[in-house]
Amino acid sequence: MQRTPMGLGAVRGDPRTHFEQAVQQAFRPELFNRIDHIVPFAALSAAERAPIFGRETLLMRQREGLLERSAELTIDDDVATRLAALPGDERYGARDVQRVLRRHLLLPLAHALSPHAYVTPLAVRIDAGQPLGVRVDPLQRPIDNTPLLTADALADARRHWQRVTEGPLFVNLVNQVFRLDDERRRYEKKRRNAPHLPHWDGTPSAHRARTLTAVQQRAHGLFAEIMELEGQALLALIGESEAPPDLAAWRAHFTAFKQQAFHAVRPDSGVCTVGLYAAPALATSLHDAWCELAALAGLEFRSQVVRLGDEPRKQAPPVDAEARDEKRDEKRDDKREEKSEDETPPSPYLKFPWPQASGRKSLIVGFEIELKGPAVFDYFRQESGVWRIWVGDRNKSDAWVSVRNDTLSGFETPHNVHRQHFFDSRPVHRFLRDGILAAQQADWRSPFPDAPAWKRALDAQFDTLMDRMLLGEDD
C-alpha cells in the first residue's frame, strides 16, 4: 500500500497511524483490504492560510448586498494576515477558512450595515485591528436620481397620453371612425344593387376614414412606445441597464400626434391669415420676422402688401341756401333707391402681391400673410392684438396684429387701421422692449426677432392650448 503524504505542508515521514486506525474502524476488513491509497492532508499553517483569506476578501467586493447598496469597500492590506493568525480547528483544513471569515468578518459587517437605509450610499472600511474593525459611514456624494426622475416622467407622460385619448376630442375622432365604417358597409351594400356607383375607396368619406384611422393607429403606436420606455427606465432604476431612456424624442412625437389629431377633427383650422399693420419700417420688419418663422415651422405662406389709396373726399356744401334745401329734399326722397342697407364705403387701401413687381407704390400700411399647415390658426391665434414696440425708454410705436381663420382673398383689412386712434382704443397685448417680446398679463417671454427662440415659446404655448382643447377645457 502506498503511504505517500499529500496536501499543503505535507512532509515525508509524517505519522498517519491516526488516519489508518480511523479507516479500519469505519470499514470491514474485506472492504479496507480493497483500498489502495490513504492520502492524509496536513494542517494549514498561518502563512498558507493568508493567501486564501486574501482571495476571499477580494471576492467580498462582488457580493450582491454591497453592489446593490453602491457601497465603497476599503480593506487594509494586513486583514488577510490578521485572519490567518486567528485560531481555528486544524482538523478541518481549508474548510475552516470560511468559518473564520464568517465569524470574524461577515457577521460584524452585516451588523454594521443593518442600521443604514438600503438606498443610502455607504463607505465601508475594514481595518486589521485587535479585534478586526468594521466601520460604516454614509457616503458623502451626490445621489444620481436620474433613473428615478426619468421613470416618474415616463409615468406622467403615459398618464397624460391616457387623459388625451380619453378626452372629448379624441373620443369624437374614434366615434367618427365607427360611423364612417358603418357608412362604408351600407355603401357597399348599396353598390351591389347599383354597380355604376364609384368604389368606396374613391369617395371623400373613404379619404376621411383613412385620415382618422391613421391618427388612431398612431395613438396606439405611441402607447406601445411609452410602455417600452417605462420598462427600460425600470431596468435602469435597478441597475440592469446602463442609462435611462430618452423621453425627449417621444414627447416630440406626442406633440406631433396631438397636432395631427386636432387637425383631423378640425381641418378648417389649417389656414389662417395674419394682418400686420404699423409704420412702414416697422411693418416691414414684422413681416420679415413672421415669414422667417413660417419657413422655420415648415408652413406654406404667401403675403401681400397693403398700401394707402385715395380716400374719398367730402363734397363741399353748395353756397346757395335754396339749392342746398333742394338737394336735401331730393336726397331724402331718393334715399331708398340710391343707397341700400348693405352698402359699404369703398376701401381706402390697395393690395399687391409681395414682393411687389408693379403697381402703385404709395405709403405702406401693413402686410397680410396667408399661412397653411396643421392647426396653424390655433398655433398663432393668441398673438392677435396690439404690439407695443419700445425704442429706448421714451419712443414707442404700436402695431396691430390680426390673426383670422380665413384665406388671404377673404381677409378684410380693418377700417382706419392706418390712423392712431385705431390703436388708442385697444388694449396692449404684447410688449417688445430690448429684444424681448413679452405678454401683458401672462408669464410669457421670448427673444425677438430670434425665430428659433420665438418658435420654441410658441410651441410651448400651443402645446398647452392643445392639451386644454383635447381635454375639453377650451373651445
Task: Looking at this protein, list some descriptive labels.
Helicase, Ruva Protein, domain 3, Alpha-Beta Plaits, nine-stranded mixed sheet, three-stranded mixed sheet, 12 strands, 47% helix, disordered N terminus
List the helices and strands and how they pair.
Elements: H1 17-26, H2 29-32, H3 46-60, H4 64-68, E1 72-75, H5 79-84, H6 95-113, E2 122-127, E3 133-138, H7 146-165, H8 168-193, H9 204-237, H10 248-265, E4 271-277, H11 280-296, E5 300-308, H12 321-333, H13 335-338, E6 349-353, E7 364-372, H14 376-380, E8 385-391, E9 395-404, H15 420-424, E10 428-433, E11 436-439, E12 445-447, H16 451-470
Parallel strand pairs: 1-2, 8-10
Antiparallel strand pairs: 2-3, 4-7, 4-9, 5-6, 5-7, 8-9, 10-11, 11-12
Helix pairs in contact: 7-9, 8-9, 8-10, 9-10, 10-16, 11-16
> Could you name the CATH class of the largest domain?
Alpha Beta
Please identify, by name, the CATH architecture of the largest domain.
Answer: 2-Layer Sandwich
Order of helices and strands: HHHHEHHEEHHHHEHEHHEEHEEHEEEH
Outline type:
elongated
* Integer average pLDDT: 82
What's the story with the biggest beta sheet? 9 strands, mixed
Tally of structural domains: 3
Distance between the termini: 102 Å
Poorly predicted regions are 1-13, 336-344
CATH third-level topology of the largest domain: Alpha-Beta Plaits
Structural class by SSE content: alpha+beta
Helicity range of the residues? 40-55%
